[in-house]
Specification:
Elements lengths: L12 E3 L2 E2 L10 H9 L5 E5 L7 H11 L6 E6 L2 E2 L3 H10 L3 E6 L13 H15 L6 E4 L18 E7 L2 E8 L3 E2 H6 E9 L1 H14 L11 E5 L2 E6 L10 H8 L7 E9 L1 H16 L3 E10 L1 H9 L3 E4 L1 E3 L7 E4 L2 E9 L2 E9 L14 E6 L2 H16 L22
Parallel strand pairs: 4-6, 5-10, 6-7, 11-18, 14-15, 15-16
Antiparallel strand pairs: 1-2, 3-11, 4-8, 8-9, 9-11, 12-13, 13-21, 14-19, 17-18, 19-20, 20-21
């Protein structure tokens, strides 16, 4: 059964989802050292809300980057890097002696994709200039399709995590989730990130990062998983994938299918053979009394919708027109799930956050993904609160919605 433990509580909230000790703005010399001395990080969770609270994960990242001291390392594995919020902080961090290492999504020829990583290009140029003057320890890898899987026309490096070897007083911090680090994502896409200061998690993610920087297939099946106190994490690609080895199917089989079980899913893409077997599993759980709410994003297939509707899931729009975003659309880019159930007479809580879309395609099982499960009331309640604006949106007509149509952005906003 899924393990349930309590994660350490948040210490001090700088804003919703970020923890830090209060203090003056970062200065130079002794002032900066004092800021690093008092800054701490524990657990945190933030959501980009393009309608009500735009750019929260980017600002959280900016805060973290500013508190990375000289000699520390920032490790980045992300699909997008095109944020005007985080770029100045990264530039300043490199200039003060922080090493920055990044695995970024490249195209078929292993070069930057237009519109995807403008700040990643700047980062690579800055690091190359530093290397020309003897600076070592920083690098950027542009993947050729996937980093750890089989390279085909429809695979990509899709994971989204940032790691900090040190932030102020805190060592080994990992931030992981669904957030694309870009101004365009801030303007239109709901997406969450969770932060944990956990050495075992940091080390497990670093193993994958070190594999990914080689940009070649990792073993027969590159699927990996790890677990620690109050969490577990899995890394795709999974090639092959089937109902027997699908980590989401395993998750669903371990949750009781009865009237005490309540689940919420917010999913950008849910389609294909994999999407259908997961939908059928959830439909079976509903028929045994479980409750399910689904925020259906732009790439949820009609077949999945029909399976869930026939099982009487509560379906919510995950893509709609709005006058409050620059593109005219808001949509879920989340790949999140919450669940609560009763087991052995006790109420259990869980939340899952990551980059794994529920399908076989570029955003799913064939590409690089990282998804973390958290087993605590804090994680469940925090993610429930962050998902509430998507669920509250009305009306829910589930009309076909393409938020990137004629936007000038790559269709691969995954």
């Amino acid at each position: 059964m899924i393990r349930v433990t309590t994660v350490v509580a948040v210490l001090v909230a700088l804003f919703a989802g970020t923890t830090a000790a209060p203090g003056p703005a970062l200065g130079e010399g002794s002032d900066r050292r004092e800021q690093h001395r008092v800054f701490t990080v524990t657990q945190a969770m933030s959501m980009n809300d393009p309608v009500h609270h735009r750019g929260a994960p980017a600002r959280q990242l900016r805060t973290f980057i500013k508190h990375a001291p000289r000699g520390s390392v920032i490790s980045i594995m992300t699909f997008y890097m095109a944020s005007s919020i985080t770029w100045p902080a990264l530039k300043a961090a490199y200039q003060r002696g922080v090493d920055i290492r990044a695995v970024l999504a490249g195209g078929d020829d292993g070069t930057p994709q237009p519109g995807v990583s403008s700040e990643g290009v700047k980062l690579a140029q800055m690091i190359n200039a530093g290397r020309a003057h003897g600076r070592r320890g920083s690098w950027v890898v542009w993947t050729d399709n996937t980093a750890r899987g089989r390279d085909t026309y429809n695979t990509t490096m899709h994971a989204k995590f940032w790691q900090f070897s040190r932030l102020g007083q805190t060592r080994k911090v990992t931030m992981i989730g669904a957030y694309n680090n870009s101004d365009a994502a801030d303007a239109r896409a709901y997406s969450a990130m969770v932060t944990l200061a956990d050495a075992d998690l940091y080390d497990s993610v670093q193993e994958i990062f070190q594999e990914a920087k080689r940009d070649r297939r990792a073993g027969g099946n590159p699927f990996r998983k790890a677990a620690g106190e109050g969490w577990d994490v899995y890394f795709m690609p999974s090639t092959p994938i089937s109902p027997d080895n699908d980590p989401v199917m395993k998750r669903l089989k371990e949750i009781p299918a009865d009237e005490n079980t309540r689940m919420v899913v917010s999913m950008y893409s849910w389609q294909g053979r994999r999407g259908e077997w997961l939908a059928r599993r959830m439909a079976a759980m509903l028929r045994h009394g479980a409750h399910l709410t689904v925020v259906a994003g732009p790439d949820v297939s009609g077949k999945v919708i029909r399976i869930l509707r026939e099982a009487h899931a509560k379906l919510e729009d995950g893509c709609w027109r709005t006058g409050r975003t620059p593109s005219g659309f808001a949509y879920t880019h989340d790949k999140e799930m919450t669940a609560t159930w009763i087991e052995d007479g006790e109420t259990r809580y869980a939340a899952w956050i990551g980059s794994d879309d529920w399908g076989n395609g570029p955003g799913g099982s064939q590409s690089d993904q990282a998804t973390i499960g958290l087993y605590s009331a804090w994680a469940y309640n925090r993610l429930t609160k962050l998902l509430a604006p998507q669920i509250a949106h009305e009306p829910d007509n589930l009309a076909r919605c393409n938020p990137l149509h004629r936007s000038g952005l790559p269709v691969m906003m995954r």
